[in-house]
């Protein structure tokens, strides 16, 4: 653990968050991908396809992050995180637009804050952004 305890725990939390959301999305239960794409597509047919694709990418990225903690090099890791970061960035913009249209209540701001934390974590973990 050469990066420090905080960085180690941060990577575990991001990995678990991605894995859990990937599994929930594949089961078509709740979870951020189901919520995200139902908001984007309003139940139209591409919703399930996008949920499935995002869930698979998130699941693989989460597993890759965990493997990287054990010094297993994953060559495509940065690309996976990049794809998830783009998805999350689009969702953050959608959340911002929704807040501007419907008002800034405490619960919507809390949801936005969580999605901004996930988005910033993905940006930090991707070498493509910094």
Description:
By secondary structure, the chain is mainly alpha-helical. The chain has one domain. It has 5 helices and no strands. It is globular and about 45 Å long. The chain starts with a helix and ends in a 5-residue tail after the last helix. 25% of the residues are buried. The model has no long low-confidence stretch (mean pLDDT 82).
Largest sheet: none
Distance between the termini: 22 Å
Percent of residues in beta strands? under 5%
Structural class: mainly alpha
Q: Return the domain count.
A: 1
Give the integer mean of the pLDDT values: 82
In angstroms, what is the radius of gyration? 15 Å
Helix content: over 70%
- Counting DSSP H or I runs of 4 or more residues, the number of helices is 5
Number of distinct beta strands: 0
Could you state the order of secondary-structure elements as H and E?
A: HHHHH
Instruction: Please mark out the parts with pLDDT under 50 across 5 or more consecutive residues, or reply none.
Output: none
Shape estimate: globular
Which keywords apply here?
single chain; 5 helices; mainly alpha; 130 residues
Summarize the structure.
This protein is mostly helical and 130 residues long.
């Amino acid at each position: 653990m050469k990066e420090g305890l905080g960085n180690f725990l941060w990577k575990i939390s991001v990995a678990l968050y991605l894995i859990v959301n990937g599994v929930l999305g594949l089961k078509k239960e709740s979870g951020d991908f189901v919520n995200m794409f139902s908001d984007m597509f309003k139940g139209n047919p591409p919703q399930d396809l996008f949920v499935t694709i995002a869930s698979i990418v998130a699941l693989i990225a989460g597993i890759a992050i965990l493997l990287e903690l054990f010094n297993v090099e994953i060559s495509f890791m940065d690309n996976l995180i990049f794809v998830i970061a783009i998805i999350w960035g689009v969702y953050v913009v959608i959340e911002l637009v929704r807040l501007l249209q419907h008002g800034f209540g405490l619960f919507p701001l809390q949801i936005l804050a969580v999605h901004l934390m996930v988005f910033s974590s993905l940006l930090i973990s991707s070498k493509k952004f910094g």
